[in-house]
Amino acid sequence: RAKKVGIGQTVVFNDAMICSLRERVSMLSSLKQDLDRHRLYLVYQPQIHLQSGQLIGVEALIRWVDESGQMISPVVFIELAEQSGLIVKLGEWVLRRALYDCAELCRVHPGFRVGVNVSPLQFQQADFVAQVKAALAEQGLEGQHLDLEITESVSMSYAEETVEKFNALRELGITISIDDFGTGFSSLSYLEKLHADCLKIDRSFVDKLTTSASGYRIAQTILTLGQRLNMRVLAEGIETDAQLNELLKLNCDAGQGYLIARPMKLDALNEWIQVYTEQQTLNV
Ligand code: C2E
Ligand code: MG
Ligand code: MG
Ligand code: MG
């Protein structure tokens, strides 16, 4: 992780840092190239309404397999893209691609909705709302088909601008989810002003839900908060039946995780939806 260095401070590089700096520079340049060559792709993870089991949408997640065939985690390259500014272009590509795929799925499933992760720098662009509007128009989609996932840390900074942007996005019919909720530092009065639609409980709390008392209490607190502030709550990273049952008891609205489905390429998603919705109708 690069440290921000103030004026007059000295940075001492050790061997490990130089090596990692070199690696980062070369990784960034292959990332740029692969973005231009359309070698990045998206996978989609289903999100369901927990009580009914109904499919409510999917989250788009970016994937990069570099030229040597190595899969690089988005946690690594998104941060690199964020620091270098490449995220603005990359984020726009993700948005357009996700909406293109969403439009295709809408031909079969008319109410289909896709969630797209938005990075801090991307969200802070002055023309961000215009960019989103244009991407929707390009596919002839209404805002109702799009959910934007913004991390807690981003939504809590730049107060005035953020509230304005959230309002403008909501006017387009777009919903907003606060991603990784519970890992940042929310101001509760500010959270209320944002009128986000959904809080996503960070996976780390879902992980501990059934194994530690504090994990349980945190999840419970986030759920109460969401209910009081009129927001839906989605639990991410559900991996076990025990977690699912606990979330059902706690009245959690929605969830996603390996237990329900892994992120998939568009074709696999199409098939998954087919099978899943058939099962759903049989169960009702
Ligand atoms: P996130 O937005 O919180 O996404 C959830 C992550 O949890 C994804 O990791 C997903 O594959 C993983 N996950 C889902 N269910 C489970 C589960 O049951 N167990 C476990 N262990 N993991 C689960 P992924 O795809 O590696 O993405 C990591 C992070 O990278 C994302 O966290 C997001 O912050 C960022 N990211 C991914 N795609 C994009 C993108 O297109 N744009 C931006 N700006 N960030 C992205
Ligand atoms: Mg997300
Ligand atoms: Mg998340
Ligand atoms: Mg997360």
Automatic annotation (TrEMBL):
Residues 24-277 form the EAL domain. The keyword Phosphoprotein applies. Keywords: Phosphoprotein. The keyword Phosphoprotein applies. GO terms for molecular function: cyclic-guanylate-specific phosphodiesterase activity. One of its GO terms (biological process) is phosphorelay signal transduction system. This is Diguanylate cyclase/phosphodiesterase (GGDEF & EAL domains) with PAS/PAC sensor(S). It comes from Nitrincola lacisaponensis. The chain holds residues 309 to 592 of 592 of the full protein.
